[in-house]
Design goal:
By secondary structure, the chain is of the alpha+beta class. The chain has 5 domains: 40 residues, no CATH class; 122 residues, Sandwich (Immunoglobulin-like); 129 residues, no CATH class; 149 residues, Orthogonal Bundle (GTPase Activation - p120GAP, domain 1), CATH 1.10.506.10; 126 residues, PH-domain like. Helix content is 42%, strand content 20%. The strands form 7 sheets. The chain has a 7-stranded antiparallel sheet with strand order 17-16-15-14-20-19-18. A 4-stranded antiparallel sheet has the order 7-4-3-10, with helices on one face. This is Ras GTPase-activating protein 4-like. One of its GO terms (molecular function) is GTPase activator activity. Keywords: GTPase activation, Metal-binding, Repeat, Signal, Zinc, Zinc-finger. InterPro entries: C2_dom, C2_domain_sf, PH-like_dom_sf, PH_domain, Ras_GTPase, RasGAP_CS, RasGAP_dom, Rho_GTPase_activation_prot.
Amino acid sequence: MLSIWIGICLMTHMCLCGCAAGIDGWLNLTEIDPDEEVQGEIHLHISVLGDGDVPTRLRCQVMEARDLAKKDRNGASDPFVRVRYNGKTCESAVVKKTRYPRWNESFEFELEDASADSPLSVEVWDWDLVSRNDFLGKVLFNINRLQSAQQEEGWFRLGPDKPKHSEQEGALGSLRLQLRLRDETVLPSSHYQPLTELLSQSVGSHVNGNWPDLIMLIDETTTAESRQEVASNLVKLFLGQGLVKEFLDVLFKLELDKTTEPNTLFRSNSLASKSMESFLKVAGMQYLHRLLGPTINKIFEERRYVELDPNKVELREAGCTGLHRTQTEAEVIQQSTTHLQSYLSELLNAILQSASYCPLVLCQVFQQLYHRVEACFPDPEYRKVKFIAVTSFLCLRFISPAIMSPKLFHLREKHADARTSRTLLLLAKAIQMIANLDTLAYCSKEPWMNPLQPTIQQGIAQLKDFITRLVSCDDAEDLGLQARMSLQCGTMEKEGYLLLHRTKDKCMPMTSPFKKYFVTLSKDTLSYARTQHSKKTSFISLPKIRAVEKVEEKSFGSANVMQIISGDDSGQLETLYLDCKSVNELNHWLSALRKACSHNTDTMSSYHPGVYKADRWSCCHQKDKADTGCDKTKHGVTLQEWYDPLDPDLESQLIYRHLLGVQQVMKEKYLELKELHANEEGTPEKGREKTDEVMRFFGVLQDLHDAHLAVEEEERAKNKNNFLLELQT
């Protein structure tokens, strides 16, 4: 089977470091030879030997390699080394099923004057019993230089074979890339506190009935190019301050004040729309996974042929009493309609049931959006607008995109194939029609969607019912309590089958050490047993856990292994290794365990990402078992949930950097708005307060600018002193 590899040739002179604005341009796609796609390093010791001062032999010691390319179905390779010099070839033994082989073999060659210009070639290959061996990379050495240095030892990057220039360059299309390298200096927290307080006060004043000038200025001066990034940073900052609902409510009101046509409400890429998108992706990912996961997985597993458009229907064979005949176009469409109706009904039922487990903060944000729109458009002819405002975010900007591209929302590890992708697209179209609460407009554009009309009409009624329940979360105290408990329990309780290996001395056996157990994470302990219903026989007390970290892929040949390091009563460390099914499962367990241990005091500051075997650590090659570790632990880093520890200083720095860039525009816009609303001020005192607040804001930006200049000056002085010291020595 011929595989075509498409790659991107990046010119070496395109250096991000030397281009402040980054790179934005079209790059030609070119055909790439598989033998050029290499990776990894090899550890060699090459020396020149001789009698007295006359070199007579060349010795190449091949010790080990790491991070080799995956060439076999098991995710590894069967590597061996081929050493060539002066027409002679030697080969090492084959090490089976690994990307981190160890050979410890030596090869010697005779040195002759005529062969001084011949290079020493060290090649790594993947051995195959049936097909040809696969090239993994090579290193070339100049013998003249070796004779001068006598020896060379170290890790060498494997390179490709001679590149094969393609005559099709530019004929395979182009890809536009935007690349940017950002270097941010984050100051101590005290420097950002005035900015954070002013932004929080601006949102808080809106709650008390005053107008938030700062948020209005940010909204008016943020360009389309920076809007997504600014929205994401502001959402995270206000999440950290506990004011995200108030912040989004301010943006809802600003958007409504500028909207005269309700049918276009929240359809543009405004700061309000981008902020709500960011909020949903941060606060609603677990909800989305629970909602869509079963249906998406079913579509991927069944991989049915689904098509409604007659112009795209492919006639297929159908079984008929032992004989085969070709289906008609009508039969294909009818069968496709049945499959889509089944998927759509299943998804609509899941949406309706999700009102009971939707995170409370999402319910509250949708509730305030619903009531804001209802108050702005109270007329009977606009009775659907309040529902569409909710569905425009929940369905059109969250659920539908996740159905079309599950991988981008971490619902699947790989993109869908063409057949599955078409099914997902048609399902997403149906959800969009339901979210618009109007089938006529869509069916006039795509009349071939008409067969789904009955299910879509039923879905509209179900979606309205769901939204009514969703925005009534504060009407029932027990519903709010249930949502809160659901949110809290999600951080503390988890269970499922995993592959486990436990060791006190971290010495790895030669065979696979993992065994299947049912693992349960509860409020105080992590326990596991051979089956779900058998008595739990092994426990780890959560307060005794010292670290929860990932394990390097080379340790067990799997990228989804994590380790739990805990201390027993005697103070001895024990390590439990967990091998998860996928990267998503790994991330969920990491997050859950780190949250459960977030208040532990006796934690480790460093750890080994590898394992101890063959008398050394696989990560740093230290021989001391009790070595403290070669990498920093990541206690505060959890994944994919809004209540994870945030980095308020970084978010404040990124917001400051943006505001500094638009400072002059903000001043001009403020003077314009001040003059426009001069007659709308309630009292002179209130007007003076708002003026003072904005002036303090510009003063805070200047203070932060001065603080950055001081840090940069200190850094330049330090570099200058280091340079002078080097000259003196």
